[in-house]
Q: What sequence folds into this?
């Protein structure tokens, strides 16, 4: 396999420090799909003069910023229909409860998802994935959770696998059967959890479609005890677990998930400062989702000070979904995290690279620029990382490499 050498780059390596890991006038050698060497351009092990001999493609980055490929570690990218009508009705004065009572809300998306074929769901999800990819996305997590029965949860996860094949994007598939109570189980939530544990999850797992298991623990969804039962079923199958927790109230879901070894707890606006230490002790990543906070016009801020004090890894994600976060941009997610949560641009970039990789259990492979890791990287037409969080509605992505292959030809780059 041929090698690729990037020269004259401003690398944000996102190394073990808490910073960007910046290296100016740097070079990076890719070999066999992985990063083989990083150093200064002056010390390159190969140069443009001997490319013919070494079969090396050389790209002169001319000072541009190079970051790891971006990772969206929490999305609901596959679903039928949309909820623009609800958005409109709410702005005309209808309450969320009225809309839900008339068959709206999450149940509306469940009905539209059940009614759609695999092909229709795929066609609808592709532009969403492509939009995220246009801003340097190389890995995305996609959850089920709008099927709420075996057939339809499996259908959603199949679509996630099809997206991976079609786009060459790395897709992590998460089973979220316990997202909401389907209407046919109204007032029988324990029976539904039995179905999730004994039928739906084992069936999806048997098809090889489950990389992790998530549960929505909230008064409008499932209790801590019900979440614990789903986690036990996941762990019997050897699957990693994670939770949507403390989004709207403090039920204790994040603490329960962390003490059971969850990879991440997501949302956590209502998590108390005193409970943050448990996340640290259990190496559990805090995934913050500013898109949902923005759309729902939430006031309760996540416990950022305590997360920093306890050195909890903080990841950021789009939570892309048709209801609470119809967001398809990690750059805007970073800006929202800075503006709404007062995260720093450094934390924001670490949140969609190394800490997102940790939230998916993939930090040995991706999330930073280090020799040995997969060569997932993005070339940006900016000179320093804060530009990515600071500007709104500007996409400076010029080239993306996924596992050593250029995805988009390098406009503005000299080869
Ligand atoms: N939390 C959310 O914000 C979304 N799901 C979840 O567990 C909402 C999903 C939707 O409204 O469709
Ligand atoms: Fe979510």
A:
């Amino acid at each position: 396999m041929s090698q690729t050498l990037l020269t004259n780059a401003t690398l944000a390596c996102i190394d073990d420090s808490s910073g960007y890991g910046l290296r100016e006038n740097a070079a990076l050698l890719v070999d066999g799909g992985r990063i083989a060497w990083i150093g200064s351009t002056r010390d390159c092990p190969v140069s443009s003069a001997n490319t013919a001999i070494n079969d090396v493609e050389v790209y002169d980055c001319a000072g541009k910023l190079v970051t790891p490929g971006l990772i969206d570690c929490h999305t609901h990218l596959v679903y039928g229909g949309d909820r623009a009508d609800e958005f409109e009705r709410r702005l005309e004065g209808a309450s969320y409860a009225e809309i839900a009572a008339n068959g709206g809300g999450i149940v509306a998306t469940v009905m539209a998802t059940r009614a759609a074929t695999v092909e229709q769901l795929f066609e609808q999800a592709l532009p969403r994935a492509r939009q995220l990819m246009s801003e340097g996305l190389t890995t995305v997590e996609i959850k089920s959770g709008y099927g709420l029965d075996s057939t339809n949860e499996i259908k959603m996860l199949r679509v996630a696998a099809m997206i991976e094949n079609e786009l060459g994007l790395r897709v992590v598939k998460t089973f979220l059967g316990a997202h909401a109570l389907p209407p046919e189980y109204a007032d029988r939530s324990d029976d539904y959890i039995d179905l999730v544990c004994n039928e739906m999850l084992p069936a999806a797992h048997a098809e090889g479609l489950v990389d992790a298991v998530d549960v929505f623990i909230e008064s409008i969804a499932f209790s801590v005890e019900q979440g614990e039962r789903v986690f036990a079923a996941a762990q019997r199958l050897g699957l990693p677990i994670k939770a949507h927790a403390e989004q709207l109230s403090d039920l204790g879901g994040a603490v329960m998930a962390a003490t059971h070894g969850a990879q991440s707890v997501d949302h956590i606006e209502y998590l108390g400062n005193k409970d943050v230490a448990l996340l640290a002790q259990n190496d559990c990543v805090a995934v913050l989702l500013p898109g949902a906070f923005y759309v729902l016009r939430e006031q309760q801020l996540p416990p950022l000070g305590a997360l920093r004090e306890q050195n909890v890894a903080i990841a950021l994600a789009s939570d892309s979904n048709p209801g609470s976060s119809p967001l398809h941009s990690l750059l805007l997610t970073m800006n929202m995290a800075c503006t709404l949560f007062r995260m720093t641009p450094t934390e924001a970039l670490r949140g969609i690279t190394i800490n997102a990789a940790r939230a998916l259990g993939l930090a040995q492979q991706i999330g930073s620029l280090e020799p040995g890791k997969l060569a997932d990287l993005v070339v940006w037409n900016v000179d320093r990382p804060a530009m990515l969080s600071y500007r709104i509605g500007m996409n400076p992505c010029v080239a993306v490499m996924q596992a050593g292959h250029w995805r988009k030809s390098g406009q503005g780059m000299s080869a």
User: Anything to note?
Assistant: Residues 378 and 400 are 5 Å apart (CA to CA). The pocket of fe (iii) ion (ligand 2) is lined by residues 74, 76, 244, 319, 321 (CB under 6 Å). The chain has a mean pLDDT of 95. Residues 150-167 form the longest helix (18 residues).
